[in-house]
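Marked as duplicate of an earlier ticket. Keeping the data here for the record.
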Amino acid sequence: MPDEYELVLLAALLHDVGKFWQRTGEQGAHQQLGGRFIHQYIPPQWQGCAGIISKHHDVSAYLSEGYNPLKIVITADWLSSGERKNLNNEESANVVNTPLISVFPEIRKSQSKNRDISPSEYCYPLKKLEIRYDVLFPVPKEQYPKRQLSHEYKELWSEFVREVSKIKEVSEFEVYFNTMYYILQKYTWCIPSAVWKSRPDISLFNHLTTTCAIAACLRDIELDLTYCTALYRYVSKKELTDAEKESLDDERFLLIGGDVCGIQRFIYSVVSKGAAKALRGRSLYIQLLSETIAKHVLLRLNLPITNLLYCGGGHFLILAPHSAAPKLEEIEKWIAEKLLKIHKGELYVVLGSVGLSSSDLLSKRFGSRWHELSERIAWQKRQKFSSIMNEEHYDELFGATEEGGIKDICSVCGSEAALTPDEDDPSLKKCAFCRSLEHLAKQVAEKRYMLEIPTPTDVNGAPEDSWEHTLGMFGMRYVFVDEVGTLPEGAHVYTINSTAMPTGLCSCASAGFRFLLNTGLKEMSNLAKGSQGMKKWGVLRGDVDDLGVILSEGLGDDQSISRISTMSSMMSLYFSGWVHVICESFSKENSEGDLYGIYSGGDDLFIVGSWSALPKAAGKIYDDFRAFTCNNPDITLSCGITIAPTEKYPVSRAASLAKESLDRAKQSPGKNSICFLRPMSWEVFSGGVAQLRDRLLELIKSESIDSTVSRSLLQRLYAICRMFEDERSRGGTLAAKHDDRYGRWGWMLAYVISRARSGGKKDELLEDVKALVQSNIEHAIVAVRWVEFLTRKEEVR
């Protein structure tokens, strides 16, 4: 017999699946169709949840004694659908005709809330989830085909039930639930949760999973009639008594945030020689560590995967019952002790929380509460290891971690652990842990599947100084394979960068998929050699501007848990899925060099590459990001690029300089900029600077014009740009550009261009260069240096 909790979870996860079926043209109320779906496609042992689904709009039962499982699902549905904004009848839409519209056009930052431009609507195609442009990117509503979508719904439904039918023999609830979670994501990510009298910008997947997360938090609560009546009266827009208001203000939920501290130092403090494998391995390890710790917290709190609302960039967010608060301190202490033992204080995880009431969810304050949690965690990060700051750990926290003296140290991390020579370069000596991380990078680059296997925290059989042993201490083992063979009970198989679910799994293992930046292993020396002109590698870093403001204020009064969840999951799809596609295709289709993806997820990215490839890649990532977010001027991205001066330049220093470049870009008015050699707006970068670069390259390199000019023109133009900057420092920008008293650079430009003339097509290009320098004089020095780097002749050694 299944326990009641399992039935409640499954009912909450599938309570609105009847809407999907209904839109294929199937007759019947969606709750009744949901019940039929359960009887036809769900294993017999859990078909008891059909009664809950069929009655999840039964108000009379909700307001009666008993029916607690049903009350939990109805309550979770109402709290999750706090986003549903009633529209008048004229605005109401035909259910079958209406696609999911993007949530991004609605976002406003505070300074532009008065922008009196009605946001355009962008629609997603009704297709199963795949990382393809024609699937992921919304199109303007006027370009969306105006037709009944029932045919597309029928095709999607047919594939959905075929995939669901394959797991009907599964007997373990967790295996079944986890696989169903990914099947739902694959097929319902593009289906609007509600259309009738609602804005259709919340996906059915996000509504189902947030409903399930809320239901999981309510499982131990016997919902009393006062609370149920209060909630019913609230959603019915009736006046509440003081007692009813108090009942809704009671904090029944806990929003838990986790933040891995020390990531920058851990990942980037590697030497350049052989750094490629180390960088990738360390970045992957941090990703796996964050996920493992997040899932460990879920396990300790007995919560399903739906309650992990977000995980990326070393951060995670969990929705838990408020009763979990006392356990949180104990869990944080346990994690701190493990990490101190393994990483000797280099890595630390902060766990913070804020209480959430039903009123917070109903009044759509979820984004604000998330922002409040982020500020609390930022404060807690100043008190690292405070949870274990006692006599027992005094020596570990304040004592020496190494013996010192004249000793060999690991070439990657600098530790005094036992060292062995590197297989590829015997001059490098590495510790066992660093070697294991390099092995991890190699495994991920070559394999199709990732196996996630729960394991006892004290037994996993891996060598002690390895990433496998470390993650095993948190109860998880990972294996990367090309073929899925025999699996242990409870294993989870993820297909990497594809939503094609693995077939032929035993009934004891669940299946899913995950997206990650995975460009294969590449060496710094090869990246440098692959550059055009100057043979150097560089670093590109980027992130979304003001994400905290977007989360806390961007949706105004519509910060429901489903809407915030939809926004963050869409953002993750771009960074973890689409940036991988950009990097993978870039190296095949472009001659500017190669890219080596280190990390992209959440809202930021870190890419190493041939220096000449990075500006173009940054432009592509920005342009696609703007298209993905519907060209909303309040959702922007900034990037910083740095070029390593030598092949053996420390990666840690290059990473730090790229971060400084990113910070300089963000200091530009309105942010939304790139810093490549110097900060500028994207408009200037892809406009005047790019045009001037192209004209100069054509003048110097093209064989189609009568005669090229020598590279000495670049030196003269560079001197003119510096002359402008000197004059600007004396008289200001306007005077330097328009006042003849400060305009000596203009006369010099005319003289230099005149001297370079020789008649024919070349003169037309020279006139173009002159006009472009004049109109972009503030940033012309970037284009001049860019071309100088691209045309520099360096030997490949």
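See parent ticket for discussion. The two ends are 70 Å apart (CA to CA).
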